[in-house]
Amino acid sequence: MREIVIAGGGSAGMMAAIAAARLGGAVTLLERNPKVGRKLYITGKGRCNVTNHCSGEKVLEMVPRNSRFLYGAIARTPPAWVEEFFSALGVELKVERGGRVFPASDKAADIVDALFYEMKRLRVKILQDRAVSIIIEDGCAKGLKGERGTYPADAVVLATGGVSYPATGSTGDGFQMAQAVGHTVIEPKPSLVPLESSDRFCGAMQGLALKNVVLRVKNQKKKVLFQEQGELLFTHFGLSGPLVLSASAHMRDFAKEQYTCFIDLKPALDEPALDARLVRELAQGSNKDMDNLLNALAPRLLVPVLLERADIPGDKKARDLTRPERRRLLELFKSFSVTVSGPRPIAEAIVTSGGVKAAEVDPKTMESKKIPGLFFAGELLDVDAYTGGFNLQIAWATGRAAGEHAVREAEG
Q1: Among 171, 165, 129, 164, residue whose Cα is nearest residue 150
Q2: The dihedral formed by the CA atoms of 394, 395, 399 and 402, expressed in degrees to the nearest 10
Q3: pTM attached to this predicted model
């Protein structure tokens, strides 16, 4: 039997193991944690956004870097295949807003268990060890060296993840191993990450969650890079929440660009309608102080910030509000700006942007163009996508390609 050794027991590594074993490979999977799927347990807030219920073409549209590299892998393993794969393993799935696919139980553990028991059924040998280097013989990959042992093989798959969430085991080991055998690694940067702001009012509103707002991101040339409706959160450092994580994937060059977030706090009302609402509230509460009156229009933590930014005293009577002051309030409700100073550290990112240079990897097989018998899968590669299940879709597709072709390569 063809011996395949895989480094990394995450989504891509487990899929590679299953794909290789289904073709008759004798598979050994090395995972540094006591259990496989550590990062999968925390994806989608513990619910695991498995894929997106869309076409392969749509997946590629959601990949801002090197999408053409994924064409073959996604065409062979589209979202429909992934849904059928998990359904066949006994996992009932459901589709939510934006095509996001989750286990019907809302438990990521169901996905991990399905993969684990399928590997067990296929007699994949799962060992707790941390791969440290690739064994090279006559210019070919012939196994892995770990901290606890040496694992000779006919082909090697690296699926060790990026450098986000290092507590799950993603500490960049794969990047170092790839570089050691001559591969180029594009500098890893955070993607799908909270954003920092120097605006002091963010800290003053720490813990405030805003739902059904529209977030718009512009660069210094005022070009809109992202616009979507959803939920965000003010934190002590700036902004977080689903909308912000999605937006961060569009903010790729903090060294050269200045980004600003604009929040429409009342997207259901256009400016004239909102202005009419303001006029009505002011007339009905003419004797109220402004800080009291605004409680009907905005969350409590937001009210003093709105008044300060609009340069309106909190104890000013509603009847005394001037037209310019009302205009400033209106503009804040429709376009509340937050200056972005940068992303949070990469350790807090959901996904790593960057990795093994795509041009050095065969896009059909995921095999190294430099080292025969060496394959890459998942976040280790320089491809990443927006939120919505697309990054896991990439992991399944590249993992399957690497696993299947590792067996075929080993067959010679």
Answers
A1: 129
A2: 50
A3: 0.86
